[in-house]
Amino acid sequence: MKTFDNTVNGAAVRSNRTFESKNPATGEAIGLVPHSSADEVARAVAAARAAQPAWAARPDAERKALMMQVAEVIKANADYLANWVTREQGKPLGGVGPDQVPGSRFELWGCEVWTQVPASLDLPVDLAFEDATRRDEVHRKPYGVIAAIAPWNWPLLIAIWQIVPSIRAGNTVVIKPSEYTSIGTLEMVRLIAEVLPPGVVNTVSGGGDVGALLVENPDVDKIMFTGSAATGSRIAAAAAKTLTPTTMELGGNDAAIMLDDADPKAMAMGLFWGAFINMGQTCAAAKRLYVPEALHDAVVAELKALATTMPMGNGLDAGIVMGPIQNRMQFDKVVSLVERARAGGATIVCGGQVPDGPGNFYPLTLVTDIADGAALVDEEQFGPVLPIIKYRDLEAAIASANRLDVGLGASVWSTDIDKARAVASRLQAGTVWINQHGAIHPMVPFGGVKSSGWGVEFGVDGLKAVTQPQVISLKKG
Q1: 112, 179, 187, 249: which one is catalytic?
Q2: CB of 317 within 8 A of CB of 279?
Q3: Which CATH architecture is the domain 254-441 placed in?
Q4: Are 115 and 74 spatial neighbours (Cβ–Cβ below 8 Å)?
Q5: What would the pLDDT profile of 54-83 be if each residue is shown by its tens digit?
Q6: How many CB atoms neighbour CB 311 within 10 A?
Q7: Are 7 and 203 in contact, with CB atoms under 8 Å apart?
Q8: 0.70 surpassed by pTM
Q9: What is the second-level CATH architecture of the domain 6-250+452-475?
Q10: Of 283, 302, 380, 457, which one is the catalytic site residue?
């Protein structure tokens, strides 16, 4: 079994301790991942600190050109990296591009695009004020060293969201991938580091103890984290001790509301992928669906027809659309939430039974006869289960959507766009989609409200988020 290395200062670093990475479709160990020591974390941060001044001093055009080289490296190695994503995370290989099955090849296509877009963006000097006596300019300056902690659901794509804008703006990065999905990220950074100066991108790997060492390092200038609210709270507490700024993209429990003029047949596919992309293991997936009583049965029938016909299995096999839940902890949570719903009188329309055989497979599950207050509705399931809740009064549905202390995304489904816009404006979420769900774009800011986090990623706003404003004020005359 191969032992993988971290990349620090452009070189491979072998750790004395390792742990196994396992394929969630088979349970087999597929590689040994380094468990970074305290000294190794400190050396990675030191390498980033030493490399940052020269990297920031490079002309902007040079950094942009190197970002495009990074995109070419990702494209050239997409099949290799996609294979690791499938083996570690579980999503099928699928296709590429926005209209294909959103599997590992789709993830690597996203890595390429989310590298190209920041490389194309500029952060010009803004003129804040000028008159006969003064001129005030706003310049954007890098923070310095960015500590990035990536999750296991979209391991390479979210790592790119953290790495590329940061280095594009003149920062250097130390990234810790999830302990569940480390190999793909370690290999991607190894490859892209070959076209970057040493120390610009570095990795450390391991569990929460390694993440704690990274965020507590006094030479870290900003922290970027994507993951659970519980872990985010611990990171924020650690960051507060050193007043280190953070960007937090935390959990969501996105509500989707169908209005009474919605078309169940026409909208079923969009709703389906809004809920079940990546087996529901997406922060901004639709996780609770509110449907008018008159449309309920038709919506359930359309979604059931899709859910019961999607091929599920090992993502390396041809024709597979759905893979396993990534880890056993998450699998057990999903099973528990469904069983609690069943015990509470909910109807399991399809799925809801653990299949025989290896792997963390769980069928796509639709649950009806359930209401606010049930754990499956109130807690983020982060898996292939969708509770469908009837409503009679639209005001009550809006109140239901807003009642929880999360606000990453939401969606409204209607044939009346003006009516949908009016409802969307009242939903408490960082993004509200109309007749789609989870449709992120590299030019469109993305972030949450309430306990779903703070700060934004993507586009010009995301690039500004990894920089600090500096005002240069000139007295005239």
Answers
A1: 249
A2: no
A3: 3-Layer(aba) Sandwich (3.40)
A4: yes
A5: 999 999 999 999 999 999 999 999 999 999
A6: 11
A7: yes
A8: yes
A9: 3-Layer(aba) Sandwich (3.40)
A10: 283
